[in-house]
Amino acid sequence: MNILVCLKQTFDTEERITIENGRISEDGVEFVINPYDEYAVEEAIRLKEKHGGEVTVITIGPERAEQALRTAMAMGADKGVIVDIEELEEEPDEHTIAKILAATIKEEDLAFDIILCGYMAVDDGSAQVGPRLAELLEIPHISTITKLDIDGNKVSVEKDVEGDVELIDSSLPILVTAQQGLNDPRYPSLPGIMKAKKKPLTRLELDDLDLDEEEIAAKTETIDVFLPPKKQAGKILQGDIKDQAKELVQLLRNEAKVI
Amino acid sequence: MSRNVLVLADVRDGKLRNVSLESLAAARKVAEGGSVTAAVFGSFAKDLVDPLAEHGADKVLVVTNHELDQYTTDGYFAAFKKVIEHINPDVIFTGHTAVGKDLSPRIAARLGLGLVSDVTRVELEEGRIVFTRPIYAGKAFVKKVFKEGTVFATLRPNNIEKGEADSGRKANVEELRVDVPADLLRTIVKDVVKKSTDGVDLSEARIIVSGGRGVKSADGFKPLEELASLLGGAVGASRGACDSGYCDYALQIGQTGKVVTPDLYIACGISGAIQHLAGMSNSKVIVAINKDPEAPIFQVADYGIVGDLFEVVPLLTEEFKKLLAQN
């Protein structure tokens, strides 16, 4: 089975956000594989362990993003592709990213039976690239899956639908996006980390892909980045715990007016 | 500049979701005299015309194929694409819901459009539509505009105020036929397992009662469920509670998990790790109940009670019962 995983390197979710010169500062930030993409990587490796085949991990990002690919390879992915788009003059949007991923898959002749992505990235949180990519590759997709079974050509999944679960059947080739609960990603082992250093990695730049700038030009742009207003310290109630409960209910009714 | 705006009505269990009415309010705002069309799919579509009209739709396009009663990507894709080609809108809004998140990016890719998703605010500035949306799960925000093409956005439930219903308001109703042959649907929904508590979805809940490691067990969620059910709210959880196996991951609120903005968020036994705060700190009113007075959750709380949740939550439920009985 040929398995592709698209992943993004993101800030660790424990990081605080600061803004410098109108941009999110990356100073001293710890980067990880986007947690939702990590579920996708884990699921891909499990598919390979069960059905055989090869797992290729793809990312778009600056040089530092190679580390995310190496981590995925240490978990068990076989090879990686990184597309550096630093030469892009304008800020990319989801349209840009999906187009570049589709072009990479087509032009590098990356054969696939299944493509796995995280359902969203914890930084931009737009949840767009997976479904967009499926459309550009003209294959079906199922988003926010929490269980995946493949039998021959047949695909059965459980999909999280805002708390409810849909049981969906489909067939290969397909793109699925991973929701939390799909699996428990493994930690890379030490031998895994050693092996990952030698696994093949293809580095591409935009010029290597047959795309014209106009075709991938972002349709949207960011005009402002800002932090939410700091919350004022609240009121800690005092006294007998029963009276506190009573007071709180009154405050919610009369002061906050939410009940 | 007047604009023609298209809103896709989001239907769950045959009922119109609030986010669709909120989207209509946003649509009216950006239409600036243009026409607002709502599209609604499913055999029950005609029953949903009135609330759409009363909340601002000038025209309602109904697609009554029974194949669209259950959402499938390909079925809705065919219908929505046909609607868009029929209306040729300047602006398209859907909910940032299971349907909108699944469908809108795919439609955008097919039509070569930009898409701004998970919008919490829609404004007009110097003739442009400016969208505000959270990044890093609300640790920061960005404002986005379109450089070209049709404006397309998914709107987060519970953030844009819906307008008052105008019961006298009527809309033109037009029925659109769409072919949905069986072989068009490449994914087939075999079954739907209902899990959400009392049908109140976390992303749309006005009140959320949420538990952390402090609930100690799956049973520990019971008093929280009682309080939530009394208030017509939903139960949520922190990653700690989910990782400990006390509850389903579907309940997780945080940077991984759901980002919520209810009117009232009651955090019980949640310490307030930064990844959890990202998911809930934009709630309108936050109550924290925790044994540890130093817990970071108190820094974002409007009201705090330092105490054992197993003592405090039942007391609160009792007090709320008294209050609600007075009305």
From TrEMBL, chain A:
GO annotation, biological process: carboxylic acid catabolic process
Domain Electron transfer flavoprotein alpha/beta-subunit N-terminal: 21-213
Keyword Membrane carried by entry: no
Cofactor: AMP
PROSITE patterns linked to this entry: ETF_BETA
InterPro entries reported for this sequence: ET-Flavoprotein_bsu_CS, ETF_a/b_N, ETF_b, ETF_beta_N, Rossmann-like_a/b/a_fold
Keyword flag ATP-binding: no
GO cellular-component term (any): cytosol
GO molecular function, one term: electron transfer activity
Keywords, alphabetical: Electron transport, Transport
SMART domains per the UniProt record, alphabetical: ETF
Family, similarity comment: Belongs to the ETF beta-subunit/FixA family.
Subunit composition and interactions: Heterodimer of an alpha and a beta subunit.
Reported function: The electron transfer flavoprotein serves as a specific electron acceptor for other dehydrogenases. It transfers the electrons to the main respiratory chain via ETF-ubiquinone oxidoreductase (ETF dehydrogenase).
Name this polypeptide is given: Electron transfer flavoprotein subunit beta
High-level lineage: Bacteria, Bacillati, Bacillota, Bacilli, Bacillales
From TrEMBL, chain B:
InterPro entries: DHS-like_NAD/FAD-binding_dom, ETF_a/b_N, ETF_a/FixB, ETF_alpha_N, ETF_asu_C, ETF_asu_C_CS, Rossmann-like_a/b/a_fold
Coiled-coil segments: none
Residues binding FAD, per UniProt: 213, 238-239, 252-256, 269-276, 290
Entry GO MF terms: electron transfer activity; flavin adenine dinucleotide binding
Cofactor note: Binds 1 FAD per dimer.
Keyword annotations from UniProtKB, A to Z: Electron transport, FAD, Flavoprotein, Transport
SMART domains assigned: ETF (SM00893)
GO biological process, one term: fatty acid beta-oxidation using acyl-CoA dehydrogenase
Presence of the UniProt keyword Electron transport in the record: yes
Cofactor: FAD
Organism superkingdom: Bacteria
Domain Electron transfer flavoprotein alpha/beta-subunit N-terminal: from-to ranges: 5-192
CDD domains: ETF_alpha (cd01715)
Family under the similarity heading: Belongs to the ETF alpha-subunit/FixB family.
Matching PANTHER family: ELECTRON TRANSFER FLAVOPROTEIN ALPHA, ELECTRON TRANSFER FLAVOPROTEIN SUBUNIT ALPHA, MITOCHONDRIAL
Name of the protein: Electron transfer flavoprotein subunit alpha/FixB family protein
Organism: Thermoactinomyces daqus
Taxonomic lineage of the native organism: Bacteria, Bacillati, Bacillota, Bacilli, Bacillales
